[in-house]
Amino acid sequence: MKFLDQAKIYVKSGDGGDGVVAFRREKYIEFGGPDGGNGGRGGDIIFEAVDNLNTLIDFRYTQHFRARKGGNGAGSDRTGAAAETVVIKVPIGTQIFDEDRETMLGDLDVAGKRLLLCRGGDGGRGNAHFKTSTNRAPRRADKGWPGEERWVWLRLKLIADVGLVGLPNAGKSTFLSTVSAARPKIADYPFTTLHPQLGVVRLSVTEEFVIADIPGLIEGAHEGSGLGDRFLGHVERCAVLLHLIDGTAETEEVVAAWRTIRHELREYGGGLADKPEIIVLNKIDALLPEEIDERVKALEQASGHKIMTMSSVAHMHVDTVLRRLQDYVTRDRAEKAEQHKAETPEA
Hints:
The longest helix has 26 residues, at 318-343. The strands form 4 sheets. A 6-stranded mixed β-sheet has the order 12-13-11-14-15-16, sandwiched between helices. Mean pLDDT is 84; it is low at 187-192 and 221-228. 20% of the residues lie in helices and 23% in strands. The chain has helices at 58-61, 172-179, 251-268, 289-303, 318-343, and strands at residues 6-12, 23-24, 33-34, 45-50, 64-66, 86-91, 94-97, 104-108, 114-118, 149-156, 162-165, 197-202, 208-213, 240-246, 277-282, 308-309. It is of the alpha/beta class and 347 residues long.
């Protein structure tokens, strides 16, 4: 299935049904009177997050969503039927923005979460509503209220615990295929990953987390170079970033690679530069011990962080890196649970 993480669609809720003018006329009943019913309510437009979708590809082919108009009123004080609600199902993690692409209208980050975006119009009043002691035969009935309409942008941000970042050919896809059942494209040329990939890592029966692999970044990605930095949105929700660096490059290039990614994270914003980061020197199976030490010392001096080493192909130190990631994920989940508990009022 083709991956699509942005889409622009048009939505319109239903107009309210019209009220009617009607009078009661029955044989042998001397006094009739107005009995025109009210119009029915127009259909609403509701977005709902569901857990069986992972792309917005459906909205490439269906871009207009309209709810039905409410039914018109009828005689004998009969109210028109209310129109059905249109429920638009989107993947978990979908954000809904106004047409300006800056004003967020909703963030559907939990399965089952709903957003009423466009409310259906109210039905018009029939002439029975306008009957008074001085106006016993009103001939007034209102039209239904119009529904709401707007263009909106849908932006999908994948729900993952760990975000993989790094330059092209840093070994991100190989790492993902090694630790999970995901099968991303792997080749010896840049940009083999053209869209985000998700993989589930299971360390034990009770310990698992989701890794998101995004296309590689290059210098100037925030200005549109390469594939740009748009895919960084998919790691905004992650608890920790796993920064892979190609250890087969020269020492100066290894440090430059780290600085390039850090610069792009800061330019992108969204709090990515402030997220916990685990820096891993990858592909150490192709290096001599003294070469590994040289690159690790240079990275530690530049970043001020403890550097881990790994080889996905040879499966060297992979378990150690996964255990470190699990510790961050477990801590983040506990903090979120405490925060949710504090924000939820007691029954």
